[in-house]
Amino acid sequence: MQTNFTAEQLSDPHVAESEKILRRCVHCGFCTATCPTYVTLGNELDSPRGRIYLIKDMLENGRPADREVVTHIDRCLSCLACVTTCPSGVDYMHLVDHARIHIEKTYRRPLMDRLIRHTLAAVLPYPKRFRFALALAKIARPIAPLLRKVQPLRPVAAMLDLAPKGRIAAYDPNHVHPRPPEAKRRGRVAILSGCAQPVLDPGVNEAAIRLLTRVGVEVVVPEGEGCCGALVHHMGKEDPALDFARRNVDVWTREIDNGGLDAIIITASGCGTTIKDYGHMLRLDPAYGQKAARVSALTKDITEYLATLDLPACEPQDLTVAYHSACSMQHGQKITMVPKTLLRNAGFTVRDPAEGHLCCGSAGTYNIMQPEISEQLKVRKVRNIEATKADVIAAGNIGCITQIGTGTALPIVHTIELLDWAYGGPKPEKLA
Ligand code: SF4
Ligand code: SF4
Questions:
Q1: Cα distance between residue 381 and residue 358, in whole Å
Q2: Given ligand 2 and candidates 31, 53, 82, 93, which is best to mutate, with the most ligand atoms within 8 Å of its CB?
Q3: Is the pLDDT of residue 159 over 90?
Q4: How far is the CA of 367 from the centre of ligand 1 (A)?
């Protein structure tokens, strides 16, 4: 794609990077076929190619974002299916990241939109606040149908719908209990405790730690780590996202320099994609660029790391698993076969739902901010999963687990919970 940026514009490293990305696009449109919003809405401006044109026009003309650009960029899930499909290697992820930052800086959103975004950014990354918000949401759930009738309040109704219906686990800041290895020592890793996952499902990291320690890996949870920054990053809030990243880089760098780490283990693939990008996010920061790149290089999804440990094969189990590959897993981190191979090796029968490349509609806060599109994608995803006739659904991202869980009666668990069970841990509660 031909571009017409001035030398002055290109002196901004963010613009220079976006220009390089734009120039790779050859307008072929292959990406449209796998884009969930184009498949759902059928509008070229809701396809990757359409968005690329909108971003190019906005950046090239040095214009503030307008309502049209914001509408179509907001509808993008950042699922990155287009990145997987694109034959020209267009780095859409960093292009849309830049567009979102530009929107945040130059566009004044309607009041309710601003309020909701501000609230999400102030609550979700902080476990105690998030847990308190979930408790309030449980009480307020009966008014959700009323709120849904008022267009600007639909995100609030979506929030209430997503809150867990059952008991919300007490938030324990030490919910992950690191342990020394039980078998011959094979490595030392840090595990990200994170923000939303320990509130929504504290059992995920417990399962990961149990399995790792059982096979000889020492697991540590360095004090001070927290939200990876993905939630605010996807809202275009660059400064808080970089602050979260710097804090985690500091914590893990201290641990690398003191005890040494073989890996930084992530059990939510949405977080994994962002942390693997810390090196890029902080590349212009002379104090953090190198440290962040080192952290990114050490970051591994739990399944990626387990695959290096050569776990023994287990006896076949009488359980069929529909494996849902989160977009951040398959498109963001290109981890496709490993989780399924581990599950098969652990004795489970694994089935691939049709249209596995399409997002479930979770996508960070997307299911709150774009509830109509998100709901359509969820219904489609659940239909494809249920068609496999599996007994249970497995996924490696808490966002997908929450989203899909609200649309089906099938139990949905984290992949690590099944693996932990197969290798001697307790049966996941949801299968009891
Ligand atoms: S990231 Fe997903 S929703 Fe956004 S343009 Fe690409 S395929 Fe479409
Ligand atoms: S597939 Fe790649 S090159 Fe083709 S239009 Fe989409 S982004 Fe551009």
A1: 8
A2: 31
A3: no
A4: 15
Give the binding-site residues of ligand 2, using a 6 Å CB cut-off: 25-31, 48-49, 52, 82, 85-86, 88, 90
Atom of ligand 2 nearest to the CA of 24: 3
Query: Residue 267, class by beta-carbon neighbours within 10 Å (0-12 exposed, 13-18 middle, 19+ buried)?
Result: buried
Residue 82 CA, ligand 1 centroid: distance in Å: 6
pLDDT number for residue 138: 87
**Tokens 């509130």, residue located:** 199
Instruction: With both helix axes pointing from N to C terminus, report the angle between 415-422 and 203-214 in degrees, rounded to the nearest 10.
Output: 40
Residue 217 pairs with which residues in a beta bridge? 187
* Prediction pTM value: 0.95
Angle between helices 13-24 and 48-60 (to 10 degrees): 140
Q: Please work out whether the CB of residue 242 comes within 6 Å of at least one atom of ligand 1.
A: no
Residue with tokens 């059952």: 166
How far away, in angstroms, is 96 Cα from ligand 1 center? 9
**Nearest ligand, measured from the Cα of 86:** 2
- Please tell me if the CB atom of residue 80 comes closer than 6 angstroms to any atom of ligand 1: yes
Give the integer Cα–Cα distance in Å for 11 and 279: 21
pLDDT tens across 266-322, in order? 999 999 999 999 999 999 999 999 999 999 999 999 999 999 999 999 999 999 999
Burial of 424 (C-beta count, 10 Å sphere; 0-12/13-18/19+):
exposed
The predicted structure's pLDDT at residue 259: 83
Q: In what order do the strands lie in the sheet with 320-324?
A: 349-351, 320-324, 392-395, 412-414
**Sequence-separated contacts (24+) of 62-69 with Cβ below 8 Å:** 62/9, 63/106, 64/106, 64/107, 65/99, 65/102, 65/103, 65/106, 65/107, 66/107, 69/99, 69/103
pLDDT band at 164 (very low <50, low <70, confident <90, very high): confident
Question: Any idea which ligand is nearest the CA of 22?
Answer: 2
pLDDT at 170: 63
